[in-house]
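Q: I'm building a small set of examples for a reading group on sequence design. Run inverse folding on the following structure and report the sequence directly after it, with nothing in between.
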């Protein structure tokens, strides 16, 4: 699964880790996160994330 980076603060969403503090379990693909989820560091929405080229 692909990682995504916040274009504002550079937080990296890693599907292997999820975002447990926001109720997103490990193993959740970025595409499967609810649309109202926001960056845990700066609060922007999913639209401000870009795929990480690995």
């Amino acid at each position: 699964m692909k990682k995504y980076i916040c274009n504002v603060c550079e937080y990296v969403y890693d599907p292997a880790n999820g975002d447990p503090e926001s109720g997103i379990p490990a193993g959740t693909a970025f595409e499967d996160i609810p649309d109202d989820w926001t960056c845990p560091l700066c609060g922007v929405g999913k639209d401000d994330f870009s795929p990480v080229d690995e």
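The mean pLDDT is 97.
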